[in-house]
Each structure stands twice: as C-alpha cells, then as structure tokens.
Amino acid sequence: MNRKGDGADIIRNNLAYMLFFLAVFVAMLFFVSSRMDNVAFWEDFYAKEIARVIDFSKQGDEVKIDVTMAVQLARKNKVEFDKIFIFDNEEGSVAVSLSRGTGKSFRYFNNVSIENEGTELSEENVEVRQLIFNIK
Amino acid sequence: MRKMNKKGMAGDYAMFFVYIFIVFIIWGGLAAGIFSFFGDGYDFKEAEAEILINNVEVCLREKDFFSGEFDIYYSCGFNSNINEEHMIYVKRASDDEEIIFGVRDYINQCEFVGGKENINFPECVKKTISVRGESFEVIVGSNQDSRGILSG
C-alpha cells in the first residue's frame, strides 16, 4: 500500500463534507446564541408593549415605562443606550434592539409624535431604569 | 503520473446526500426544540384590536362616520398605516349602510371558523354601539406582528 500523502488525500476528498458541516454549524451557533437570552422574545415584547402604551396615550402625556430588563440585556450584548429604543414619527413605529445587529419594530395606530425620549434611573429605586418620552 | 481510480466513486458521491440528510435531521431537531421551548413570540393582535375598537367607539360618539367627507385618519387621529394590517368596519343598523377602512378582506377572514386557530389570520373584535339613538355594529381586525429589523 502506498500511504504517502494519504492525509492530504483524506482532507481533499472530504473537503465538501467539512465545509458543509462548518457552514451549518456556524448558522446554528448564531441561531442558538440569539435565542439563549430569549432576546428575540423580549425585543418583540417591549416593542408591542410600548406601542400599546402609545395607543392608549393622549397628546400632552408624559410616559414612563420600566425597562430595566431590556437595558440589562442590551448592556450584556453591548448595545449602546441610545440605540435600544428608536421611535420613527414618520412611520409611526417603535423599534427595540437588545442585541447588536438585530431588533424588532412595531407600528402604533395613534397619530402622535414621540419627543424627548431617553432612559433614566427611577427616583424611588436606583436599580430600576425607566424609558421616558412625551406624546405630542 | 498519478492514475485516478474512478471505480466505485459514484457510491461515495451518493453518500454526500445521506450526509446532508443526517446533518439536517440533527440540526433541524435542535432548532425545532429551541422554537418549541421559547415559543412563537408575544401575540398582541387581539389586545391591539381591543384598543382600536375602544378608540373607534370614542370617535364614533363624537363624529359622523357616514357623512360624505369623513376622513377616519384626520377625524379619529389614526395613522394611515392602519390601512395595511387592520380593518375597521362600521354598519348602521337603521339602513344597513356600511363603511370599511383598511384591509377589506378581513371582514371575510374574521368569519372563518378555521381562522381562530391560525396565527396567520387576523384577530377580530365585535361590538354593538348605540349613539344618538342609532345602533352601529363595529368590527375591528388586526393582523399586525412585529417586523425584524437590522440595527447598527
């Protein structure tokens, strides 16, 4: 038997198998890591709940929402504060992003503008972070 | 010169499909497990339809929906985006005159029995409202779900 160069042959013959496995493995890794903190669920949840509050609101209201969990998840995933909650007054939608590169957007039907949005610590409990904005 | 041995290679190549099948079974099972554990997301359609029908009721008590130049977006303060994934149906009982805003087909989809269990169908809420001695049948449907976005 000629065993010279057998190692290289084995790799060459199975290259397609290895590349395919690697591609599927990387895709699964992204999928599993995005689901590990249930980030997709919480993005969905916060986008819909904020839209619900806006739909209930009237012009002139100031809204404060406890977003501690969202901020903690975003911080863990290295998302900057000003990119977690983004309001689009043109489209009438709110987008929530708790992991880098992804997010969920939901449209509210109430024809209002969102202004002065920002997050700040609660006065009653310093561990609670609130999203604050005005309805115009 | 190296001589290639092509004898029996077809069997080797055919194994590639078996390999793909096994990989999909394993990873597909894992993906299905993760989906079933974490669920489909947060269903908000019915809650949104409830809020919308309450807002329509408030507006119906103040405005005449059946006047010629009635504009629901301006008069009731709704975004024009409700045209795309919502429906507002109002029927006046006295003369059966009806008016529909948004996706007109939801009026049929709201009545489908099979649609109640199907997440792709709209969630609908019905209400009978009496205003100024008139009775109105109002149906509101919502089929809006959140959309995935790419963020910076």
How would you describe this protein?
The complex is a heterodimer of chains A (136) and B (152). Chain A has 136 residues and is α+β, with helices and mostly antiparallel strands. In chain A, 42% of the residues lie in helices and 27% in strands. Chain A contains 4 helices and 6 strands. Chain A has a 3-stranded antiparallel beta sheet, covered by helices on one side. A 3-stranded antiparallel beta sheet of chain A has the order 2-3-4. In chain A, a hairpin with a 2-residue loop joins strand 3 and strand 4. Chain A starts with 5 loop residues before the first helix and ends with a strand. Chain B folds into 2 domains: 39 residues; 107 residues. In chain B, 40% of the residues lie in helices and 22% in strands. Chain B contains 5 helices and 5 strands, in the order ααααββαβββ. In chain B, strand 3 and strand 4 form a beta hairpin. Chain B is elongated, with a radius of gyration of 27 Å. Classes of the chains: A alpha+beta (136), B alpha+beta (152). Chains A and B meet through helix 2, helix 3, strand 3 and strand 4 of A and helix 1, helix 2 and strand 5 of B. Strand 4 of chain A pairs antiparallel with strand 5 of chain B, so a sheet runs across the interface.
List its traits:
heterodimer, A: 136 residues, alpha+beta, three-stranded antiparallel sheet, 4 helices, B: 152 residues, 2 domains, 5 helices, 5 strands, elongated
